[in-house]
Amino acid sequence: MAVMWNLWHGCRKISEGCRHCYVYRQDKQYGKDSSVVIRTANFALPVKRKRDKTYKVPAGETVYTCFTSDFFVQDADKWRAEAWAMISERRDLKFFMITKRIDRFQVSLPEDWGEGYEHVSIACTVENQAMADYRLPIYKELPIKHKIIICAPLLEKLDLISYLDASVEEVAVGGDSGSEARICEYDWVLDIRRQCMEKGVPFCFHQTGARLRKRGKLYRIRREFQHSQARRAGIDYKR
Ligand code: SF4
Predict the structure, then answer these.
(1) Distance from the CA of 30 to the center of ligand 1, in angstroms?
(2) What is the pLDDT of residue 79?
(3) Beta bridge partners of 184
(4) For residue 168, what pLDDT is reported?
(5) pTM of the predicted model, to two decimals?
(6) How many domains are contained in the chain?
(7) What is the span of the domain harbouring residue 45?
(8) Is 207 helix (H, G, I), strand (E, B) or coil?
(9) Which one, 37, 92, 163, 222, has the greatest CB density within 10 A?
(10) 26 shares its domain with 109
């Protein structure tokens, strides 16, 4: 079972992929300013205990972090060391995080990080070639045990070939979301898949986005079908 651990809420837009950020879209409905980053009441979730002193989150769970923020956002620098300490304490869990700020990975990194914690996966997001060419060379050099490249929202054709090697456990691709979503060309998706197959890196088309163009025809896909439609394409590749 998956556990959602939202340590802090709010984020700052830093690149084109942030334009239609769902955090901003959701907060807008409630008149909230998403650029204000606040620590949540669930901050200490992994180390919370029950009356009998056992952890509330049982061993073996996968914990997805920061789904309404970015673990490495600057505004959370003051809390990150404490967050790492909780992650370090819970070696019996698996932690998964996605970031657009891999260039801030070293900020508050635990002293015992070494070649990376075995129980932590860090995914790096890229949306266009400029961000791929900025973030992926940094990512490639970092000591992280489990690496995943997420191309979402995919905004143009990407050349990833020089960044793909055995250290990348998967490349996942998805389109843009929201009523103003930018078009994702299915050919771009297939081209990334081709590169992954060439380099023997697993590939997953995880969601179509709201507007997908395939063989010249534009499809508008409702949010609830974006994952299932991608699965129906049947183009995932495992090595
Ligand atoms: S980094 Fe992620 S959470 Fe932060 S503004 Fe961009 S899309 Fe939103």
Answers:
(1) 18
(2) 98
(3) 212
(4) 98
(5) 0.96
(6) 2
(7) 1-116
(8) strand
(9) 163
(10) yes
